[in-house]
Design brief:
CATH superfamily of the largest domain: Outer membrane lipoprotein wza domain like
Structural class: alpha+beta
CATH topology of the largest domain: Outer membrane lipoprotein wza fold like
Largest sheet: 5 strands, mixed
Distance between the termini: 12 Å
Number of strands: 10
Number of helices: 6
Helix content: 25-40%
Order of helices and strands: HEHHEEEHEEEHEEEH
Radius of gyration: 28 Å
Strand order of the largest sheet: 7-6-10-8-9
Shape: elongated
């Protein structure tokens, strides 16, 4: 085997090894966590406030509790909210909740339409409680946002739209729902698209930096879109390095060389 062929084989093997490796620093979350190995701790404060404003199309789970007359409460709610009547599916959540119309209102028996647009859940509860007190005594309202949607796109294992059945969720939990990031994810440039009163807002966050824990975008809001950008290496056109193809080409080249050398 001549010198030229040896150099070619070495170059091919080096290219495979280089292309198949993604720098570990590109795959790490919370890089400052390495300080723990040096017995250094740091606290990241996040003064989060639940300030999501209700919008048309939101679903509210509303339960009425009357300690005097449970039957009247069930009649007012339009359904019987017993322990056995648990919201276990998207369909049941939809049927057991009130959907805000295009004017930002919901309609309850007795009280009629109540506008809740741009109110927080707590503010909406107070407003409905005030209206209900005009018609019924000793009745308490429980109000929750039934669910909200999150969309996770880009370099994650399972991109798609996810429904969240809890009052809050952070960025790491959302990525975990989508199966975590792939090896080709650029975790230092994760985009969050959020709806605001003035339109859509796009921000870029670094999930590799520990200060994400104190970011105002650490906690997500309903209808947020998370887009994880790919590394530049993905632009080569394959997600995993084609070892078999390269080895086949090298083997063919060696075979042809030996055949013609004779």
């Amino acid at each position: 085997m001549n010198r030229f062929l040896k150099i070619g084989l070495i170059a091919a093997l080096f290219a495979m090894a280089f292309a198949s490796c993604v720098p570990q620093k590109k795959m790490l979350y919370l890089k400052e966590a390495q300080m723990a190995a040096e017995n250094i701790s740091k606290e990241y404060v996040n003064d989060r406030t639940v300030d999501y404003k209700l919008q048309p199309g939101d679903n509210l789970y509303i339960r009425f509790i009357n300690i005097v007359d449970e039957k009247s409460t069930a009649s007012l709610a339009g359904e019987t909210f017993g322990r056995s009547n648990y919201m276990s599916s998207d369909a049941s959540i939809y049927l057991q909740s009130y959907t805000m119309d295009e004017d930002g209102c919901i309609e309850l028996p007795l009280t009629g339409k109540i506008e809740l647009r741009n109110l927080t859940v707590d503010q909406a509860k107070e407003k409905m409680q005030t209206e209900l007190d005009k018609y019924m005594n000793e009745t308490t309202i429980i109000v929750k946002l039934s669910n909200f949607n999150l969309t996770v796109l880009g370099e994650v294992v399972r991109p798609g739209m996810y429904k969240v059945y809890q009052s809050q969720i952070n960025l790491f939990e959302a990525v975990a729902m989508a199966g975590n990031m792939t090896n080709f994810a650029k975790n230092n440039e994760v985009k969050i698209i959020r709806q605001t009163d003035n339109g859509s807002e796009i921000v870029t966050v670094d999930m590799g930096a520990a200060d994400i824990l104190s970011s105002p975008y650490y906690y997500l809001k309903p209808n947020d879109i998370i887009y994880v950008e790919p590394l530049k290496i993905k632009q080569w056109g394959f997600t995993t390095f084609p070892y078999s193809t390269v080895l086949s080409v090298v083997s063919l080249a060696v075979t042809l060389y030996l055949a013609f050398k004779k």
